[in-house]
Amino acid sequence: MTSTETTSTAHTSVLVAAVGDIAEGEALQVPAERTGHHDTISVFHDDGTYYALDDTCSHGQASLADGWIENGEVECPLHSARFCLRSGEPQCMPATLAARTHRVEVVAGEIWLHPGQEPTS
Amino acid sequence: MTRIAMVGAGLSAVSACDALRGGGYDGEIVLLSDEAGPPYDRPPLSKDVLTGSAATRGDIALRPADWYEKQRVELRPGIAVTALRPDEGVLELADGSELTADRIVLATGGTARTLPVPGADDPAVHTLRTWAEAERLRARLVPGARIAVIGAGLIGAETAAVATALGCAVTLIDPVPVPLTAVVGPDIAGALHARHRAEGIDVITGGVERIDRAPGTEEVTVTVGGRPEPVAADTVVVGIGIRPATALAEAAGLTVDNGIVVDVAQRTSHPRVYAVGDVARRSGDPVRHEHWDAARSSGQAAAAGLLGAAPPARSASWFWSDRYGSRLEGVGSMADAEETVVRGDVASGAFTVFGLRASVLIAAAAIDRPKDIKAAQRLIARAVPVRADRLTDPATELRALLRG
Ligand SMILES: Cc1cc2nc3c(=O)[nH]c(=O)nc-3n(C[C@H](O)[C@H](O)[C@H](O)COP(=O)(O)OP(=O)(O)OC[C@H]3O[C@@H](n4cnc5c(N)ncnc54)[C@H](O)[C@@H]3O)c2cc1C
Ligand code: FES
């Protein structure tokens, strides 16, 4: 996969993958070096839609990319806190804090991540 | 309904509070605890608290400090409930006062079982259920200390692993040659237990008969049946399960039979009183599920029951345990499986055992394969017919099996 990074006025946009590269129910980690964000960001594929959240679970040290992705949520591999992929809000204990969300855009078959930008809708 | 009182402030009670507010309950919630300080999570007690990486109560808090005020949960720590009068909805408190509530949730958990042998009350003998006990034990786990751990189930095994990592000389004693076999099957139980020896622990099979201390010495000796030489130790840790804290319920005349007996909405035999977590047993279940996930989900089920909502779908019992940097997980009831099959490479140490009955998955246990367990939880819940050869085939995505 080629990595293309362009700088817009406020944020860096990162080309993370082509559509089809991230299987349904899987996630791809985008390391901090590529985004300038303090945490790895994971791009999740749930039922044809892509979402991006900070990868580190707000409850502990788990990587949400290793979680179970289904029905618009990701469930943490360690203690099974569930987060809404759209809003980042925790859906149950033990997490209290929301996962930071980022905007993902699919343009001409390419998946672009806009770190630090709020998802549209 | 204007006031709900919870007795005990562990995970099950806090989960019930969380789900009550999430479900729109607007009345008062009073959360009573006989322990000091705000609610904390217990699994770290035998992990990060003993290693020292979680050094303060704040590190293992169940909720942030300002959560209780924000959620309008009146937390009253450091006060025991001494009696319950269910017909009146009255709780008697240790300071002589009374509290009246429309509904009462018993979330009293349990206390660590003690060893029924002479010398078990020696100050060198520790149990591990509370923060206070964990702090006391942590101070004993210094390099070179001789630690005898009695009971090689979940908490005993975790404690032995941490003590070894901290440089203690550990002896692990259990009457069962391969503990946990009924829970996770022989392959996983065998691999787990063998790991203790590989890590340098002296593993002894036998029952403890007595604990002695020579007058004026710091050392105790643990006598194990069938062994001529007793085990010398500076500290003894007993991890042989819990005794459910049912005294209040029993005295109040509620039905108690290996735990406070409850229905799908966690209702006890008295309509005003609910019970959740380790202390409760669902009628029809042969055992109490003394695990973190069961405490969380029973709190959610009680909240639904209190709000008159349908109980959430019940999932198969799930637990995890961490030792030597590996994660053990189990879901469902392996003992009820007719056939078990392995996915992954047993020799690599990371593998999953699936338990099937009548062509559906009913149980799974795994070392370091969290996604297999997540898939198994869903295969069990949805009762999808599965073929054993597809479960074991590494080319088969378990997620694909969910689609039937
Ligand atoms: C060391 C340790 C490690 C664990 N590790 C794991 C793990 O890795 N994975 C896993 O799945 N599970 C684990 N568990 C199990 C899990 O933590 C428990 O299942 C869970 O904490 C049960 O919650 P609970 O709310 O039912 O009870 P508890 O957490 O025990 O809370 C009950 C509270 O009620 C209080 N109380 C009792 N009687 C009264 C009274 N009369 N008045 C006022 N207060 C009262 C008690 O003092 C206590 O604070 C572990 C448990 C321990 C002890
Ligand atoms: S680390 Fe994610 S729920 Fe605990």
From TrEMBL, chain A:
Keywords: 2Fe-2S, Dioxygenase, Iron, Iron-sulfur, Metal-binding, Oxidoreductase. Residues 14-113 form the Rieske domain. InterPro entries: Rieske_2Fe-2S, Rieske_2Fe-2S_sf. CDD domains: Rieske_RO_ferredoxin. GO terms for molecular function: dioxygenase activity. The keyword Oxidoreductase applies. Gene3D superfamilies: Rieske [2Fe-2S] iron-sulphur domain. It comes from the Bacteria. PROSITE patterns: RIESKE (PS51296). This is Ferredoxin subunit of phenylpropionate dioxygenase. It comes from Streptomyces gelaticus.
TrEMBL record, chain B:
The keyword Oxidoreductase applies. Residues 3-299 form the FAD/NAD(P)-binding domain. SUPFAM superfamilies: FAD/NAD(P)-binding domain, FAD/NAD-linked reductases, dimerisation (C-terminal) domain. The keyword Oxidoreductase applies. Signal peptide: none annotated. Residues 318-402 form the Reductase C-terminal domain. Its cofactor is FAD. Keywords: FAD, Flavoprotein, Oxidoreductase. This is Hypothetical rubredoxin/ferredoxin reductase. The lineage of its organism: Bacteria, Bacillati, Actinomycetota, Actinomycetes, Kitasatosporales.
